[in-house]
TrEMBL record:
Organism: Mesorhizobium amorphae CCNWGS0123
Lineage of producing organism: Bacteria, Pseudomonadati, Pseudomonadota, Alphaproteobacteria, Hyphomicrobiales
Pfam family for this entry, one: Methyltransf_25
A single GO BP: methylation
Highest taxon in the source lineage: Bacteria
The protein's name: Type 11 methyltransferase
GO molecular function: methyltransferase activity
Residue ranges of domain Methyltransferase in the record: 51-151
Keywords: Methyltransferase, Transferase
Length: 222
C-alpha cells in the first residue's frame, strides 16, 4: 500500500493525537507502557539479522533494540508522519541512521519489499500498537506473512488487568480512551489462532497481574 492510499481518517487522527504529545511521549509513557524492555531482550536477533517494528512511534524501542543488537539491521513502520519525524531525529541523534530505515505505512496492509527492499524479516515486533490500530487482527496476519522461515513475531500490549482491582481497570480504561487506545480482549485468542493457522509455536505470558500481555509466535524453519 502506497502512502497516498493510506486510510486518511486514521492517519490524520494519529497525527492529530501526537502532533504535540510526541515531544513528551517517551517521558510520560515509560510509567505505564510496561513490558517493552522484556520484549526487546527476548528478540534474540541472529547476527546480521533483520528486524521490523510495526507502529514504531517515536523510535524509542527501535533505538534500544539497535543498541542491544549491533549486528542487525532495523526497519520501522508507522502511519503517523508526526511520530516518524520524531523517530528520525532520535535515530540520527543516536548515530543509527546507517542501520535503521523508517517508512510511512499501514501496519494492516504493507508491502515490505516496496517500502524497504526487504522480502522478509527475522524478527518483527509490535509494542502497544495493536490496541490503537483499527482492524488490528490484519496486522497480525500481515506480520506473519512478512516473517522469514524460522522468524518470530513478538507482541506486547495491554492485557485485561485480570489480576488487578476492578477500580484500577475502570480508571485505566477511561484514561486510555482519551488517547484512542482500547485493550484487545481477544488478543490472546487471535494470536493463538494465527499461530495454529501457520503451523507456528506460541508462547504467552501475563505481566504485572495481567496489566500487560507478552506473546511470541515463532514460525517453523521450513
Amino acid at each position: 500500500m502506497s502512502t497516498s492510499e493510506l486510510p486518511a481518517s486514521h492517519a490524520e487522527l494519529m497525527d492529530g493525537v501526537y502532533r504535540w504529545q510526541r515531544h513528551i511521549y517517551d517521558l510520560t509513557r515509560k510509567y505505564y507502557l510496561l513490558g517493552r524492555d522484556q520484549m526487546i531482550a527476548g528478540l534474540d536477533v541472529p547476527p546480521g539479522g533483520t528486524v521490523l517494528e510495526l507502529g514504531c512511534g517515536t523510535g524509542r524501542n527501535i533505538v534500544l533494540a539497535a543498541r542491544r543488537y549491533p549486528d542487525a539491521r532495523f526497519f520501522g513502520l508507522d502511519i503517523s508522519t508526526e511520530m516518524l519525524e520524531t523517530a528520525r531525529a532520535s535515530i540520527a541523534r543516536e548515530g543509527l541512521s546507517d542501520r535503521v530505515a523508517l517508512a510511512r505505512g499501514d501496519a494492516t496492509d504493507f508491502d515490505a519489499n516496496g517500502l524497504f527492499g526487504i522480502e522478509s524479516f527475522d524478527r518483527i515486533f509490535v509494542s502497544y500498537s495493536l490496541s490503537m490500530i483499527p482492524g488490528w487482527e490484519k496486522t497480525v496476519s500481515a506480520a506473519l506473512a512478512a516473517l522469514a522461515p524460522g522468524g518470530s513475531l513478538h507482541v506486547v500490549d495491554f492485557g485485561q488487568q485480570e489480576g488487578l482491582p476492578g477500580w484500577f481497570r475502570t480508571l485505566l480504561r477511561g484514561w486510555l480512551r482519551k488517547f484512542h487506545v482500547a485493550p484487545r480482549e481477544s488478543l490472546r485468542d487471535v494470536l493463538e489462532s494465527e499461530s495454529e493457522r501457520t503451523g507456528s509455536t506460541f508462547r504467552f505470558r501475563t505481566l504485572y497481574r495481567g496489566y500487560a500481555w507478552l506473546a511470541v509466535i515463532r514460525q517453523p524453519k521450513g
